Write a sequence for this structure.
């Protein structure tokens, strides 16, 4: 059992380990890094849309994850540049559906855009 006092959070952390060759500080740092990895994987699950991996080799999985992270960051950059009110998830959904649309991105991704539809201009389907 290893005890480590965290001065920043003012709490005593207790770790169990079977590695007797490293110091208490090294054990605490290993757990801290492990926790950061867990938080990163939680972020990936919540924010990146990865339904099915294209390949199962280590290289294929890395490429797939990096492409998903890059796509997310590009969407976040676009959101920031055009000051869109949409969430990044909504923004990516709109871009996915409108990939071949000729509408400018700024027009697609701003909620201020309203449909200029006049009821009188609509076709009459049934004469009553």
């Amino acid at each position: 059992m290893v005890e480590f006092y965290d001065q920043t959070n003012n709490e005593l952390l207790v770790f169990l380990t079977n590695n007797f060759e490293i110091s208490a500080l090294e054990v605490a740092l290993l757990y801290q890094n492990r926790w950061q990895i867990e938080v990163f994987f939680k972020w990936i699950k919540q924010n990146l849309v990865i339904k099915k991996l294209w390949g199962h080799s280590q290289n294929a999985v890395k490429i797939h994850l990096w492409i998903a992270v890059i796509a997310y960051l590009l969407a976040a950059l676009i959101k920031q540049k055009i000051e869109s009110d949409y969430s990044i998830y909504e923004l990516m959904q709109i871009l996915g559906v409108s990939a071949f649309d000729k509408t400018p991105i700024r027009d697609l991704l701003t909620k201020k855009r309203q449909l200029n539809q006049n009821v009188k201009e609509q076709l009459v389907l049934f004469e009553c």
About this structure: Confidence is low (pLDDT under 50) at residues 113-117.
